Every structure is written in C-alpha cells, then in structure tokens.
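Handout, section B. The chain below has 268 residues.
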Amino acid sequence: MLRFLLLTSLAALVLAEPQPRYLEDNTGEGRVVGGEVARPNSWPWQISLQYQSGSYFYHTCGGTLVRRGWVMTAAHCVDRSMTWRVVLGDHDINNHEGREQYLSVSQVYVHPNWNSNNVAGGYDIALLRLSTDAVLNNYVQLGVLPPSGQVLAHNHPCYISGWGRTQTGGNLSAQLKQAYLPVVDYNTCSSSGWWGSTVKSSMVCAGGGSDSGCQGDSGGPLNCSVNGQWVVHGVTSFVSSLGCNTYQKPTVFTRASAYISWMNSIMG
C-alpha cells in the first residue's frame, strides 16, 4: 500500500503539482480517515460552525474560540453570504447533550488578502464576532494562541480535531474525533515530492504518512503541546486532491502565529 501511494504521488508530480482541496463539508469530499473519538469536551475550544438552510442549521466547518466573543476559522469556510451560528461545548452534533451553547455570528472578518481563487496564496483565516459572549465553564474554554512568529520544530506533537468522516466517502462522525499529526517542517514540506511551492512559510504542515489518520474539518484547530499547555498553532486549510491521507501530502494549516497582529487589530 505504501509503495502504491508513493507511486501514485510520483505519477501525480509528473503530471502536475497535486491540487489543494478544501475540507469544508459541503463539498461532500471533505473530512476523512482514521483517528479516534475524543474524550467528550477534551478540546473545549473546538466549535462547530453551522449555516442556516430553511429552518435548520447544518455543520460545515470547525473553529476555535479565541476570546469569549470571537472565533477563529478558515476564510474559505465563510467565503459566502450566509446566516451562521457557532455551537460551543458540543461532542455529538446529532444530539443535544445539555452542555452546548448556540451563539449567532454578528460579523465576519475575512483576511483582506484572502483570494478564494488561489488556495496556495495563503491568508486562509477569518474571525467571527459572536452576538453574545460565550460562558466559560468545564466544557467551553478559550484556545491559547501562540506568540507571534513562533514556528514549531519538525515532528512536534500535535492533534487535529474535528467531526470527520470515518472513511473516504463514508458517513460523518457525529462525535468529535482527534488524530495525532506531528509537524512537518517547512523545508521538508516545501521540498520536491512533498507539497513543493504550493506551501508557504505562513502555513503549517502536519502528518503526511500513509497512516496520517483523520483529517478534521476546515477551520478547526491544530492543537499542539507546548511546555505542558495545548496551543492552537493552525487553522485547518487544505489537503491533496489525491486523497486526504496521501503519502507525503500532509494536511496544510494556516499558521496562527503568522496572523497574531492582524487578529489583535480586529479584536482590539
């Protein structure tokens, strides 16, 4: 299987650089393989971003509660005019468990340099202003953001979290999942045979083995253990169009530490 994946990857490189593919759910292609169900509310800053259609709301992306009234997500998740809400404290998105907070989004701030026609251009980040502040408790907490400019070393331990599909083309996981995705440093990830020039230094790569596991929602966090604390270092952005766990095509995240000053300018 590994040899097959490698040959597939090499064949694709001969044809063209693999195309990035976003991971929001309404493509039907999105979130995929492996991982494990997380302990309920063990990632208490993880949110479900939902859009309204008719009288119902539907999950499409993840996100991170970064202040009581603010959520960080991917620009491509909110790159259209819709009515949005954020669900905090959730574990099983199909059941109301009594811990959830449902907050409407009053304002969407997409990074001004974001270009929806250029996935590899970067700037895939947005902030959502909530209509009311979240109530912090055992189930809802703020995600910790890294210092501006901080870059993690190769193989640094991180987890992706999201309501992922259990297999390619399979059903969504109703319960929040997690998967171990160690960091792939920029020099490796941008090299020939990996992502090449598609990846920019303002991004973080993680995973990339044939067993890279579950790809979480677009917009959701890359949770990295730094000095005994979980820090959100990435916003899930894209994977290879060849498949979510394609060999040497790790999941690519917007690097949160590259956008700290922009976020502070928006949130005040």
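Note. The CA atoms of residues 40 and 64 lie 16 Å apart. Compare this with the example in section A.
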